[in-house]
Amino acid sequence: MELINDWRIVALLCLTLGLAPFVPEPHLLGKIRWIAGGENGMEMKDYFDVLLHGFPFILLLRIIILKLKKSSTEPTSDQ
């Protein structure tokens, strides 16, 4: 469980699995454009592919939200 809470590992996953293959464009970006274009011809495997390549970014967003939530609930010293 510590691995998904380590921002360095999650950032590495975003840069590798999240964006691979890099040429001619990041795979996730191409899939997002395909979905935004109306999803013509997308199959179930394409949706799974979006989930697989997007999951590291979901984990990164989760870490950012948890850090912001933690910093907003910490008591401040106003002396």
Can you describe what's shown?
With 79 residues, this protein is mostly helical. It has one domain. The chain contains 3 helices and no strands. It has helices at 7-15, 27-36, 44-73.
In short:
With 79 residues, this protein is mainly alpha-helical.
What topology does this entry show?
Blueprint: H1 7-15, H2 27-36, H3 44-73
Structural class: mainly alpha
Biggest β-sheet, characterized? none
How far apart the termini lie comes to 38 Å
Poorly predicted parts = none
Shape: elongated
How many β-strand stretches?
Answer: 0
Number of domains: 1
Mean pLDDT: 86
Oligomerization category of the chains in this entry: single chain
In percent terms, what proportion of residues is strand? Answer: under 5%
Number of helices: 3
Taken in chain order, the helices and strands follow as HHH
Radius of gyration: 17 Å
What is the helix content?
55-70%
What structural keywords apply?
elongated; 62% helix; 79 residues
